[in-house]
Amino acid sequence: MKRALSPSVESIWPPQSAMTRRQLVTSGLAGALAAPLLPPASALAQQGWVETHGLSTFGELALPADFKHFAYVNPAAPKGGKLSHQVRTGGANVDLQTFDTFNTFILRGSGAAGMGATFATLMSGNADEPTSMYGLVAEKVRYSADKLTYRFILRDAARFHDGSKLTAQDAAFSFNLLRDKGHPVFKIIMRDFASAEAAGPRELVVKFKPGRSRDSHLTIAGLPIFSKAYWSGRDFTKPDLQEPLGSGPYKLGKYEQGRFIEFNRVKDYWAKDLPVNVGINNFDVVRYEYFRERQIAFEAFKSGTMNYREEFTSRTWHTGYTFPAINDGRVKREEIRDGAAVPTQGWYFNTRRKQFKDPRVREALALAFDFEWTNRNIMYNTYKRTQSFFENTPMKAIGKPGPEELKLLEKWRGKVSDEVFGEPWLPPKSNGSGSDRNLLRKANTLLLQAGCKRRGRQLLLPDGTPFEMEFLDSGGALKPHTEPYQANLRKLGIASTIRIVDAAQYKRRLDAFDFDVMIMALGGSHTPGDSLRYTYSSTAAKTKGSRNMAGIADPAIDEMLERVANARTREELTIAARVLDRLLRAGRYWVPMWYKSGDFIAYWDVFSRPARQPKLGTGAPGTWWWDEAKAAKIGLGEKRAG
Question: What residues make up the domain containing 481?
């Protein structure tokens, strides 16, 4: 799951989804050979079963069974060279600043970046479609009329890196292991998963519970597959630096904790010619560099230590790219359109803490942040203000609820804020002065209505203790944005501090919900589903290590999460998501930040790319390749690439 562990940049782009959509395989024939054989396809068809080469949310696939490759890749892209870039996104236990384990699927430890590329999955996603997956380890799948049983037919060629066969027994072992011993995210997103068992070496039977959510089959199809033989006798929950046996396009290479980690392309990779892999995995070496400070990372890019950079800081983008390699054309920079849904980034209040229990207090705190001043003076008017938890999509609630939304809301009348039956809450628009007196007066009124009291210039909570709050962070890049906000909080009598801690402590405190306020960017989606439970449900609020940072525990929200997860049509999904948006916005759980719909990309001129990018992403750098002629022209040929 693409999770932002460090809020140390202006824009933290979506964290990796729990569906890694990479590649992996497994082995273990003994138990599988003893399992009952699958009925023939003809017999299953008579019973109402459907056979398909792919899966999707609403049943429609854009590509036929005989497609050759995705439309946004170059099938003739050459292999070679090195991609070197900074760790940008995390997932489960992945840390942006260091690592002490190669097992990125458990709660304990700080996981290494890039390990997803060492594993394969049953199916892989198409970046031109929001929720479709096509065969990787599984060449096809058959599912029952009630969609509670799925029979994945695995490819005979599937292999682990040691040459052993990847079998259905490995896949069954993996899914049960993730549910029972994996990171808490898996227990939540696999809630409707009932069982997985091998019905032969190549036939995996997955069963779901009645009433399963709409996307449960996609969740399973995107999970990593481990080697049962490798993990037998090993403690899956224990973090360590022993490389697990994988089956993906890359293997672990050189590494140094806290500095870098490299992955080497598997040149005889068993799945390299499959349609879902053609034109990708083009670099011989993929290297992730670790930096605590973004300025140091920028200097490393300028010196050529890294050859690819996604810029998250507008000040650097507008003022920092004046070095010689930019001036003479060796480094290029551009803003690339990104068709993916934008993330919901903001300061999240920990409502488990007494000072944030009352939504009026949380609204008052939101009124103190002057986005207009911040955007103009710090961010070069680069961003738009986030208003919704489904920003820039049809699922954003606008105006009063329509008839279909009211049908879902009516049972909650009198139990939720009256606001959800009217216009949805919008963050205030300030006068841009940096300290809008009208907004601060409204904030003061709300604080007093919530029972806060004044003692001189100091604000007291209803119990008489001083109102204090701490912004927790693991880097200082957002300090210039936070300090003006703090100045306004002081005018309200609220004492606030910024606490910057090391990566390990930061992760421990987030996992234990030990913070007042933190910054998080939650990945957006055009088709949200099961993963929202991990962020907004009452269960997640009590689950250590979940992404429900705000501690949201509301039965109305829980119901809408289920409606979103179980929507059977795009229209049903849109209506349920709009209602969920209204409820979340009415709760004032955050101070929404900002977004932009394009990515700032800078790179040394050693790459080429396909003629077009994916509809739902930039394609950078996953579909790019090393161009030796360009590299040689600027003195970074093969010698520097390896």
Answer: 344-595
